[in-house]
Each structure stands twice: as C-alpha cells, then as structure tokens.
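Hi team, as promised in this morning's meeting, here are the two structures we talked about. I've kept the exact order from the run log so nobody has to guess. The first one is mostly here for context; it's the second one we should focus on when we meet again. Sequence first, then the predicted structure tokens.
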Amino acid sequence: MANEAPEIVLLPGLDGTGELFDRIVPHLARHFTVTVVRYPPDPTLGYAGYVELVRHKIGSRPVYVLGESFSGPVAVLIAGQLGAQVQGIVLAATFVKNPWPSWFIRRCARVHPLATPRNLRDAMLMGAYGDPELRSKVETIVQGLSLPVRAARLRAVAGVDVTADFMRLSCPILALHGRSDWLVSKSRMQKVIGEKGRSRMIVFPAAHMLLQTQAAAAATEIIEFTKSAAEENYEA
C-alpha cells in the first residue's frame, strides 16, 4: 500500500469538460493516479451541487485536489468538508471570492460568448503563450458549451465567497497563477495566501490558461508540493 501512487483529483474550469487538462495529465501521471472530474451540463447546479458531485466522486479515498479557475471554490469547500482525507489542495488561476464585481459578472452571463471576438478571447485566456492547437481546442469547447449552463456558472461565480472557509483549512495549499492573468487578478490571491499561512504561491510567465501553456513546469511544482505535503502530513 505504501508504494501506491497518490491520487490527484482535477476539477475543471468554467467549461466543465475536463478536456483542457489533456496537456498536464501526462506529466502528472508519472507520479499520480489522476482522476479528471467532468461536470454534467446541468444549469440547476450551483457551487453546492458541484461540491456534492465531487464528494461522491472522491468517496472515502485520500486525495490531493486541484481546482482550476471556476473550481477553486469547489476545492476549498471539499477540503473543508473532508478534512484530513484531503492531503493538500492546488488552486490554479483561481479565486476564493468573486474576482470581478457581481453586477459585471452577471452582465457577462447574459452576453453570448461568441459575441466576444475570438482574438480578444484568446488574448484574455492565453496571452502571448497560446498556440494554434490550443486556440482551436478552446474554440471547439466554447461553441459546444450550453448557454444556460455557462450563464448559471457565471452567476455562481458572481455570488461566491469562500474566504472564511479557506482561512479555516488545515491542509497544505499551493496556489499557481499567471503573471499576465488579468481575467483573474493574482493580487487578490496573493493577499489571502499571505494572510493564511501554511500555503505558498508560485507565479508563472503565463496568462489565465497556465496549466495548458506551462503544463510541464506546473506539473513539476505540483509534484514537488505533494511530496512536501506528504512529509508534513506524516509528521503531523
């Protein structure tokens, strides 16, 4: 049992498909058993519903949890509810409180995603770090995302604030953020990480999609983090 690979559960961004983990999974799979969660296209789900879905997926297994973008609050709430069963969390390009004013996010929920010019959208998501394959994949996912589901998820983001839950966490925490991420400001995450203690933040030369554009480097940091967390949890 001691030689079994640790498990890491990956929680997806706003699209919910898990398809955008395809670049980092091969790097993580060298060290972990990787479980990718895929959210159902159900517009009735809010953050509480996603938390319940992920809890069911995890069961009673000890895991590390990675929450990307939209799923950062899910990872925080899961860690709070499952306690020592969650051995550490990774928060990638994400937030613990709505990253923009609520009224603005709700207004965005009413705008068709294809109304945003593709070049502008790609600049927000990838900055100067994208490539044709990734841009094409994002376009396919955007076109396939249900409009009611997208709107419901954005409304959930508009009202989310898990700061208090985050501050109560006792597990090791790693935050990963892109230096050029203006979709989700890194300064807010830096502030709560600094106040929290027992946590660390690493900033990459990347925009919002750092797990896709800096997959190998991000995976290396995640693996090193979980090795340190395992030692810390053992000593505790």
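And here is the second protein, the one for discussion:
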Amino acid sequence: MVINKKTNVVCEILNYNDAETVFHLVEKIRNYSVFSSILIVDNASPDGSFLKMKKRYQNDNKIIVQQTSKNGGYGYGNNYGISYAYKKMHADYVVLSNPDVMFSNEMVQKLLDEMISKNAAIVAGTQRINGKPIRTPAWKIPTAMQWTLIETKLWKYAAKKYYYDPSLFNQKDLQVECVHGAMFLLDPQKFLNVGGYDEKIFLFGEETLLGYKLKSKGYKSFLLNKVYYDHEGSVSIKKSFNSTIKQDEITHQSKMVYIRDYLGLSPIKLKIIETIFNYIIVKKKIKKRFNK
C-alpha cells in the first residue's frame, strides 16, 4: 500500500535527562519519509536537556522541541506531546516513542497501513530485546485479583487469564487489549477522546489503564506479530530509578490508581490489596538487607 502523501504522521519522543539517547534516535529516523515531523517533548529535565536539544535543532524545520512545565511522569509528558501534535501540528497519527528504541521506516508504514485498514486506536509492533522477541508483546485487561496475584507465588494462576495464549502470536496480526508503551502508532483523536493517560499514574502500568479506557469506549488495538522494533530496555527509567524496590513501589502505586479509581472495589478489598503490596515491598527490603 502506498501511503497518502497528505497523511500527517508525527513521531513524538519523550525525554527526561537523556538527550544523548534522543539524539541517537533522531539521527536514525529524521529522514524517514513516513514522518512529516518529529516532536521532542522534554519532561522538565533538570540536567539542561531542553536547551541542549533546542540549540541543536533550532534550524531544522522538521524537528520541533517543546518542554512541559513540570515532570508529571510518563503519562503527563506524553499527554502534552500528543495533544500538541494533534492541536498544533494537525497530526493525523502519532508514533509515540521512547528514546531508547530503534525501528525502520518500513515498520512504521506497516503500522500505518494496519491503522487505516482497521480504523484502530493503536497499532503496535512486536518488541525485541537483545534481538529476541519478548514473550508477552500484548496482554489482557486484568481484574484486580489478577493484577495483585501476578506479583505473588500464585502468579501462574493469574497469568493464565492475564496473558494471551502464546500460539496467537504466530498470526500476522491480532486484536489485543494492551500493548507495551515503548513504541506504537496511535490515533490522537481517539486517544484524547478517552482522556489520554491517567496522570495520577507517574510511571509503570499506564498501558494497561489506557487499554481499559480505549476498550470501554469501543476502540480497537492491534498487534503486528511479524513487525519488530528494538528496545534497549528502559535506559531512561534505569537512569532515574536504579533501585528495583523503588520501581516496585511506583508500580504498586500505579496499580492502586487503576484498582481504586476504575474497578469500584469495596474499601475492605482495597485494603487487602494494599496490604499485599506492602508485604511484598517489606519482604524484598528484608531480603536485600540480609544479602548485603
């Protein structure tokens, strides 16, 4: 399929204290024919990233650099960028991209073809790490119990209904509920119609809640199983949160936003889930202390 030249596809890259990784990605994709523009959103980095990027691309008409007023997290930064791309740049579609990924022009074209033919809200490719496709490129919207038990010794029970049957990933494309947020193509109008990311979630778990909101509105998401992008593995996140316990704490906070605000559980059930999450963190802290 030949892409309509009038189709305005913007690549939005969210940065936080990682300008060099952004530069590496931009140099790779700046001449991709599929993109009308590249929008870099600096999430109020305190390391001078914004001025560095602004200076570097000040004479490049294809690359726009913007900055948020605060670091409100992954969802906040991307909501700003997607809204800017749609309202100010009149984007028909937006590729949301972490700085630490690599993808081809042809890959984006395949996502776009699928997006147009299926009238989808999101189309994602399959993520590879170290050259190997990950085992769970997509997953189902979890119940409160599934999202809680997945972190305990009962994870196998929860995983049976939380993850798709691996054999489904042999298909060319697959309608799914949730995809990884490192890189995908979205319809900005549909994204904004559901309110975008919930900004109460600072980091981790955004994709699941977005999947819930899109499905609730009747919008569809698709995964292309034989179309790949490469992910270095949360380079930016590890620079900011190198403690796995801290990452777990943030994950639990994010999960509680979804469970508390969207699933309508009773106060008793919420307290039980919160207690389980607290127990997991305390157990890990004790284990870490004794392993020193």
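Starting points for discussion:
The mean pLDDT is 92.
The longest helix spans residues 267-290.
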